[in-house]
UniProtKB/TrEMBL annotation:
It comes from the Eukaryota. InterPro entries: Papain-like_cys_pep_sf (IPR038765), Peptidase_C19 (IPR050164), Peptidase_C19_UCH (IPR001394), USP (IPR028889). GO terms for molecular function: cysteine-type deubiquitinase activity. PROSITE patterns: USP_3. Residues 26-266 form the USP domain. This is ubiquitinyl hydrolase 1. The keyword Ribosomal protein does not apply. Belongs to the peptidase C19 family. USP10 subfamily. Its EC number is 3.4.19.12. Keywords: Hydrolase, Protease, Thiol protease, Ubl conjugation pathway.
Amino acid sequence: VFGFAAPRGRLENGRTLLSTEELACHGLPNLSQTCYVNAVLQSLLTLTPFVEELHKQSQQLYLCPPALPLILLSEVQSCLPSRNWARKKWTLVVFLTSVAGCHAEFRNGTQQDAHEFLSVVLQQLSSVCGEMKSAAAAETLSYTCPVEAHISFQMLNTRQCAGCGHESGRTETYLNLSLVSKDSVSQGLLEYLKAEQLEFKCDCGASESWQRRSFSTLPNVLIVHLQRFEVTPFFTVEKTHEAVSLSTELLLSTNQSAEKVKLVTM
């Protein structure tokens, strides 16, 4: 995850040091094969802009029943520094039950894919945006969705005919990028944005086109998913074991601007 996070603890020789008491408070209990849940939540809740936006909306969250996932996520964040493991366990159970209410695959207590869980959580949080804005407006308040404000971004997919050069574009909203594993994240991003040839029948008679992707907007936090599995020539799935270099910075650009984002969490 690339973005911005505020340092915790005290600084000494350029390093952030946490006290023994602070270290003892970190972490979430495993509810039986829910390490994927804990990994996602603890990574998500280290994102300073996202968490600050969530706290700003604390009054608005109680105006609309569909905002329950946002309220529960805020509860998880508030109990992170607590030493009360019973409270942490109960908060996690309630949060996971809420997610599983709409997604049955998370009900059976078995190990699941962390990326799929993250995608489901972000979609749930952003899906109530319209209702939240209406409920807030009725009370002369405003509502800003933390996901839309800091994680969501738009990509422009452009297709160009190889014959006549005609271009058409479509803008889509993304919550993360899923990149094929390369030597580095930067190379994976370049590969993702590289133009690719595809079959497409144009009115001019040509049957081939070029398609390329580009950032239309940049998020405060870019979530990158590295694909670590590949399909073999025998149509089986195998995990790749090649090392991927993680740089501390990643350069993102649109037609209007360019920004460097820093690695925050993994």
